[in-house]
Amino acid sequence: MILENFVAASLLLLLPLLLPCVGSLRDTPRLVQSRRNGQPPNPLQLTPQLSTQITVHAFLLWVSVGFLMPVGIIIIRVSHRVHCITKLKALFYAHVIVQTVAILLATAAAVLSVINFENSFSNTHQRLGAALYALIWIQPVVAFLRPHRGTKLRGVWYLLHWLLGTGVCVLGVANVYIGLHTYRERSSRSVSLWASLLTAAVSIVAVVYLLQDKWEYLMKQARVGDEQVTPSPLGGSHKESEMNQLWMPCFFYKQK
User: Fold this and answer.
1) Do 78 and 61 share a structural domain?
2) Most buried residue, 63, 129, 166, 171, by most Cβ within 10 Å?
3) Model confidence over 21-62: pLDDT tens digits?
4) Which of 41-50, 66-75, 197-206 has the lowest mean pLDDT?
5) Cβ contacts of residue 69 below 8 Å, gap of 6+?
6) How far apart (Å, rounded) are the C-alpha atoms in residues 253 and 256?
7) Highest mean pLDDT of the ranges 12-16, 55-59, 82-86, 93-97
């Protein structure tokens, strides 16, 4: 119930962002992207208003699929190593909040594109963007239909949820690069700075994603020379007994 209320409130917060765009629909210059007689599209005539609209559109998608969605995936991955119920709930709701904000930003970018640009779907960026927006909204629907743990469909649901989440991130980042390339071709302006910043951000997120499940192992390797494995009275090692204690619920320690 709390999760559903949060999503509903977030959708309501999106409306004030979109209403000014609807009001300026008639005064907005559109991107003409039609091909005539096999000729490439006309050069893009940038005005300050159109330049701002393109920048906002690109920035919203960059933050959404290039940063927030991967961060949401990392948060839920970190939760797999947490055994405290309270921390698990906190990480789960953090995952939901981050992904919800990412969906709202991507939706705002889509609405800005529909209002301000002519969408003839004559290029890869627009076609891939349409598929991306559909997948972005299918993902939360799949999340709400999560089966209970232990049921037969839980494994199928988890695989589908993971594939959608990962696919949206990969397609989203790829489409941002394609959009930058299309913008450079149409406007003859350099996008090397934006491409470099996007590459740096994606690289940092990728490194964190790859290291987050190995960090504890790396730290243990650094301390292995200072630790001594001593047998326990039950026949196991002291380290094994410590690892077993990690699986005990948080309330067990509170009661002790």
Assistant:
1) yes
2) 129
3) 434 333 444 444 444 444 455 556 677 787 888 888 889 998
4) 41-50
5) 98, 99, 102, 165, 168, 169, 172
6) 5
7) 93-97
Contact by Cβ (8 Å): 73, 165: yes
7 and 132, same structural domain? yes
Is 71 in contact with 169 (CB distance < 8 Å)?
Answer: no
Q: Residue 191's closest CA among 178, 204, 202?
A: 178
The pLDDT value recorded for residue 44 is: 62
165/249 same-domain check: no
Query: Which of 53-57, 122-126, 142-146, 166-170 is least confident?
Result: 122-126
Residue 240's domain comprises 221-255
Within this chain, do residues 141 and 228 fall inside the same structural domain, yes or no? no
User: 168 lies in a domain?
Assistant: yes
Say what the pLDDT of residue 155 is. Answer: 87
Q: How far apart are CA 189 and CA 179, in angstroms?
A: 13
**Euclidean distance between the first and the last CA atom of the chain, given in angstroms as a whole number:** 33
Structural domain count, the chain: 2
Tokens standing for residue 201: 């951000």
201 with 82, same domain: the answer is yes
- Shared-domain flag, residues 194 and 244: no
Q: In angstroms, how far apart are the furthest CA atoms of the chain?
A: 85
Residues 68 and 165 placed together within one structural domain of the fold: yes
